[in-house]
Amino acid sequence: MKNLIITLVLCFTAAQAWAEEATLEHIKVDTDLPAIARGVDDLMGNCHSCHNLKYVTYLDLEKLGIDRQKIDGWRGDQPINSPLTSLMSDEAAMQSFNLVPPDLSLMTKAREGGADYVYSYLLGYYSTPDGVVKNHIFPGTKMPDPLGMSTTTDHAQREQIRATAHDIVSFLYWAADPHEQERYRLGYYVIGYLLILTLLLYFVKKQIWSRLK
């Protein structure tokens, strides 16, 4: 019984320590075009070699307002309506990582924690005393540290990495639901229309009832 209690205490302590270590950082996603444009630029430079975005096409980027010359440089000889496929084949990924890196199109929607999870994951890399790179958020990850968070202690560089991660997550947030802002704007118009219609109907009702009286 005593051994069982000691084991439970140790498990609880370890779980509590892991929970503290893996606390997600909150991010306020930037939905403005400049941030999204910086994000896609950073993503293409740091993530696109391994990861697909199969639900986002180069045409979507052009409609968003991304510079056409950049888009042409990224897509090469692919058609403009092609999805953003990774530079690494599935076979090469299996040989390198023993798995195919996940598609990033819906990552901020698919993961519990959403944008906070992806942001914390990108910043969660660290080096152990024996030089092994691990991740606080996903200890079993096989993905190398894409932004170099584990290799720098310089405050200015770490802040720059944070800014880059913020822009990448802002782009991925847009990629997971490209029409979200459009729906919000339409929602405001609909609510305004309903409010005006309600007022008009109220005045019509008052006028009708005033005649009946």
Overview of the structural elements:
- This protein is mostly helical.
- The chain folds into 2 domains: 23-178, Cytochrome Bc1 Complex, Chain D, domain 2; 184-213.
- The chain contains 9 helices and 4 strands; from the N terminus they run ααβααβαααββαα.
- The chain has helices spanning 2-21, 33-46, 58-64, 68-75, 90-97, 107-110, 114-123, 155-176, 180-212, and strands at residues 53-57, 83-84, 125-127, 133-135.
- A two-stranded antiparallel sheet has the order 1-2. Strands 3-4 form a two-stranded antiparallel ribbon.
- Mean pLDDT is 85; it is low at 1-20.
Short description:
The protein has 213 residues and is mainly α. The protein has helices spanning 2-21, 33-46, 58-64, 68-75, 90-97, 107-110, 114-123, 155-176, 180-212; strands at residues 53-57, 83-84, 125-127, 133-135.
Task: Please outline the helices and strands.
Layout: H1 2-21, H2 33-46, E1 53-57, H3 58-64, H4 68-75, E2 83-84, H5 90-97, H6 107-110, H7 114-123, E3 125-127, E4 133-135, H8 155-176, H9 180-212
Antiparallel strand pairs: 1-2, 3-4
